[in-house]
Amino acid sequence: MSYPPETTKDQFQRMFQHLLVERFKLIVHQETKLMPVYELVVAKNGPKLKESAEGADGESSTAWVWAMNRDGFPIIPAGQSGVHGWISAAGTGHWAGRQATTADVARILTGETASGRRVIDKTGLTGKYDFTLYFGGVHFPGRPPGIEDDDNAPPIGLAVQQQLGLRLIDTKAPLEIVVVDHAEKVPVEN
């Protein structure tokens, strides 16, 4: 599928939705459903996040960061902000944040919780922070056989509490979901 280079993200999404309707006769609707989630809250002893230096605003990026420091944490290039990290074949994670909000932390944790649950930021913290997070126990499909977990790496929930001073609370919340009412298995020809 080609589209003009000046196409915005919203325009592209609308074009893609139209293509799915046209080619696959896709019919969907949205509804709100009570779903299991985690709430990210401040732990009992308060946050352990380090406030970022004033004026250090960078451009938020989800680009992969290849350079790592001697402890195995990503080195975020100057001028970039956000949360960057990696997970080893053994299921240990090394994440680094620069000029990151607690909403950024919740977003990245959504992808790392074993249950696949959404993490909702309920910390009430509004600053930008620098941090590192080391955790283990991430099991993903296609993990090479025979690779053992790092027994020194705490599970992600404990790591968040010990290293960031935040806590994940298991609860339910109303979430917007997309329900597929109809879709053809074979697309209509062009």
**Number of structural units classed as domains:** 1
On the 0-100 scale, what is the average pLDDT? Answer: 83
Number of strands: 8
Elements, N to C (H/E): HEEEEEHEEHE
Question: What oligomeric state best describes the polypeptide chains here?
Answer: single chain
End-to-end separation: 12 Å
Could you give the order of strands across the largest sheet?
2-7-5-4-3
Helical fraction equals 10-25%
pLDDT < 50 stretches: none
Strand content: 25-35%
Class by alpha and beta content? alpha/beta
Task: Please give the radius of gyration in angstroms.
Answer: 20 Å
From the structure above, extract its key features:
single chain; 190 residues; alpha/beta; 5-stranded mixed sheet; 3-stranded mixed sheet
Write up what this structure looks like.
The chain is an alpha/beta fold. The chain has one domain (about 30-175). Helices cover about 20% and strands about 35% of the residues. The protein contains three helices and eight strands; from the N terminus they run αβββββαββαβ. The strands form two sheets. A five-stranded mixed sheet has the order 2-7-5-4-3. Strands 6-1-8 form a three-stranded mixed sheet. The N and C termini lie close together (about 10 Å). The mean pLDDT is about 85.
